Amino acid sequence: MLKFVSLFHYLILMQNLNYKKALSHSIFTTIRKASELLNLESYVIGGFVRDFLLQRGEAKDIDIVAVGSGIELAQKVSELLPYNTKVQVFKTYGTAMLKLNNIEVEFVGARKESYNKYSRNPVIENGSLQDDQNRRDFTINALALSLNKKTYGDLLDPFNGLKDLENKCIKTPLDPGVTYSDDPLRMMRAIRFATQLNFKIEKKSLNAIKTHSNRIKIITNERIVDELNKILLSPVPSVGFLLLERVGLLSYILPELIDLKGIDEVDGQRHKDNFYHTLEVVDNISQNTNNLWLRWAALLHDIGKAPTKKFSKRNGWTFHGHEFVGSKMVYKLFKRLHMPLNEKMKFVQKMVLMSSRPIVIASKVTDSAVRRLLFDAGEYLDDLMTLCEADITTKNPKRFKKYHNNFKVVRQKVVDVEERDQVKNFQPPVSGAEIMKTYNLKPCKEVGIIKDAIKEAILDGEIENNYKEAINFMLTKGEELGLIPIG
Ligand code: ATP
Ligand code: MG
Predict the structure, then answer these.
(1) Residue 120 alpha carbon, nearest atom of ligand 1
(2) How many structural domains are present in the chain?
(3) Is residue 397 situated within a structural domain?
(4) Given the CA of residue 63, which atom of ligand 1 is nearest to it?
(5) Cα of 243 to ligand 1 centre, how many Å?
(6) The pTM is what?
(7) How far is the CA of 47 from the centre of ligand 1 (A)?
(8) Does 234 contact ligand 1 (Cβ within 6 A)?
(9) Cβ 132 under 6 angstroms from ligand 1
(10) Residues 96 and 180 in one domain
């Protein structure tokens, strides 16, 4: 008999006796007591239950539904807690939140929702647990565990979400057309969960998303970017981007990536499909970094290739200056999507702008080229090398090995040169103040010229990066400019 029971079923069966294990945190007993005192029912619902069943590790947030007032329940819970935990109340939303160490517990009253066409904000009425489960986005997110005395720890699963967890399937509780049209953010969430959990989206759902993809326009950029970030931080982000493309959402959100699609051929010469190449690069880099912004850089590193693409008989396909054009596009894209325009954006720009530099020098690694690379990339050189290594997507094993070896040489050379010349965090060995003092100058063009010449001489390896050589060089340069040192 047992051999017909899948491992998952077996685990669930074991857990069945053990759903209470999900409720091991002391907060759940407190919520049970508070619910009894207020004479209302309460349940833990959604992501917490899903992630417990998937054994996804420690929860960050816990969602509690009260059949009654969520705010009152939260207040009662806080009264019962031994330490003075503050309740944060969000009156407009009818919700309340308690923070326990690093877990946020959110309370909401069970509700019934009805939508109109122009907004993702529904008209809300009080409802039953079932009403509340009906309004959830996916069957796997509608699972609830009872926190009530008699049924404590029972699983309430009206849409067979357990089965969908087993089958790794994203499905909506109600008609998918209505679910996605009511709140188009759910389209992004479906794809995000499919990517994070490595689940499939049910066909009916995928079709409904295709039909309603233009409704994404009513969703704020901030929400869209939240989901994009979660997709990018997933183990294999391409899963999400391929889905976004397939259902037509990507052309609304990141048309720059759609423009990279396709292979042109002229005179028998073809270039690679830069869309699929980009996704490979993103997957590659995701194996080596959890840095969201470096992953963004990988996603955008080639966006300048669409507007710079040219064919000539002499040179074939070229994308001259795509790094510079791409880095300018990063700013516009971040601005459009209301993403931060601070140092995060500048970092992505820098990565895009410099994305070909290590490749150019890899074939002939001179000290001065490495010094310039170190000088320009500064503290981000390691990230840049990681990006370039991820950028190797050739299917030719010999070339693959060769390119990786080349970068190993560059990496080693970087270490050697930096140890000797220290140009990563370059500080001019002779300051502008000293130049002015030497020649009795006020701030003027000549000071800049000398400072710059010293820097260039160091980077070119004409002189070493130290005070003595720099001073001597300054005196020669000053003479050339007709300057006479005082004293
Ligand atoms: P995670 O916290 O990992 O992002 P989650 O499922 O907990 O996943 P939350 O955004 O925290 O997602 O939402 C908690 C629960 O609220 C979900 O599990 C789901 O039941 C419900 N929910 C969230 N957003 C929506 C939505 N747009 N439409 C319907 N139900 C939603
Ligand atoms: Mg959550």
Answers:
(1) 27
(2) 3
(3) no
(4) 14
(5) 20
(6) 0.91
(7) 6
(8) no
(9) no
(10) no
> Quick one: which ligand is closest to 57's CA?
1
CB of 136 shorter than 6 A to ligand 1:
yes
pLDDT digits (tens, 9 = 90+) for 184-212: 999 999 999 999 999 999 999 999 999 99
Question: Is the shortest distance between the CB of 185 and ligand 1 below 6 Å?
Answer: yes
358 lies in some domain: no
Residues 42 and 146 in one domain: yes
Q: Do 34 and 89 share a structural domain? A: yes
Name the burial class of residue 306, with classes exposed (0-12), middle (13-18) and buried (19+) by CB atoms within 10 angstroms of its CB: buried
Q: CB-side exposure of 255: number of CA atoms within 13 Å?
A: 4
Tokens matching residue 164: 């969908």
**Distance, CA of 388 to CA of 243 (rounded, Å):** 26
Q: Does the C-beta of 183 come closer than 6 Å to ligand 1?
A: yes
**Domain housing 28:** 4-166
- The Å distance, Cα 37 to ligand 1 centre, comes to 28
* pLDDT (tens digit per residue) in 140-177: 999 999 999 999 999 999 999 999 999 999 999 999 99
- What's the CATH number where 209 sits? 1.10.110.30
Among the candidates 192, 223, 253, a domain finishes at 253
pLDDT digits (tens, 9 = 90+) for 408-450: 999 999 999 998 888 888 888 999 999 999 999 999 999 999 9
Number of neighbouring beta carbons within 10 Å of residue 109: 21
User: Is there a domain that residue 339 lies in?
Assistant: no
Helix axes 238-246, 185-197, angle to 10 degrees: 140
- Please give the C-alpha separations between residue 353 and each of 1, 97, 339, in angstroms, as whole numbers: 62, 44, 19
Whether residue 125 sits in one domain with residue 25: yes
Residue 24: which CATH number?
A: 3.30.460.10
- What is the CA(347)–ligand 2 centre distance, in A? 29
Residue of minimum CA distance from atom 12 in ligand 1: 47
Q: Are residues 34 and 46 in the same domain?
A: yes
- Of the listed ligands, the closest to the CA of 193 is 1
